[in-house]
Amino acid sequence: MLHGAGDCDGAGGCYFERPAEKLVLEGYRHWTAGYDTGSVVPWEMAWGLYSDILGGADARIALAQLSYFIRTLGRCVHCPLRAFPFGARHICRDECLTLGLVAANQHRDERSAELCLGGLVCPPRAREVGEAAADFASALSGFGQRLLPIPPGAIEDILMRSGRRTVH
Predict the structure, then answer these.
(1) How far from 37 is each of 14, 32, 87, 120, CA to CA, in Å?
(2) pTM value?
(3) Which end of the chain, N or C, is more open, meaning fewer C-beta atoms within 10 Å of its C-beta?
């Protein structure tokens, strides 16, 4: 986990308060909480976040892509997705790699995408998850929401610090 990841710096603001990053991170947290709890309340909260940032019509499209991405990513029953509660000021390994995967797709960074996929899913699932992530990333880009790039070295550091390269 990265402590203080949501802290502000003096020069550029808060990384996780940027709309694109917030849509991915908080959307991931809300959607996984909905699956974990069986409650629609987190999904309604995701709708509120997405519609506030994107407007109703674009929010419907982006949430459909988020839903498909999270559902595809979470299909491995032996490897449940990890997430902090929404609004937390920390970020876990799976959240870092999810942000990295979406950013990599938006910036056509194949190396970072491969690293993130390798850390999130087993090889037989990589193509399906990669395609779902690309669709979600494309939808966000289409609505003017581009994440900052996350270089391969930063992703390698996350994988090294977590003490394992894959979840299997």
Answers:
(1) 29, 9, 17, 22
(2) 0.87
(3) C
- Averages of pLDDT over each 10 residues, the chain, 168 residues: 44 76 96 92 97 98 97 76 85 94 98 96 93 98 97 95 56
- The predicted pLDDT at position 165 comes to 42
Q: What is the amino acid identity at position 70?
A: I
Is 145 within 8 Å of 19 (Cβ atoms)?
A: yes
Q: What pLDDT sits at residue 80? A: 74
Q: Which of 167, 110, 151 is nearest to 134 (CA)?
A: 110
Alpha helical stretches, state H, 55-151 = 56-73, 93-106, 110-120, 123-142
- pLDDT at residue 96, as a whole number: 94
Which among 93, 129, 89 is positioned nearest to 113, based on CA atoms?
129
Provide the 3-class DSSP secondary structure of residue 144: coil
Question: For residues 88 and 97, what is the distance between their CA atoms, to the nearest angstrom?
Answer: 17
3 state DSSP class of 166: coil
Cβ neighbours, 10 Å, residue 42 = 19
Alpha-carbon gap, residue 142 to 164, rounded angstroms: 34
Give residue 6's Cα distance to chain centre: 15
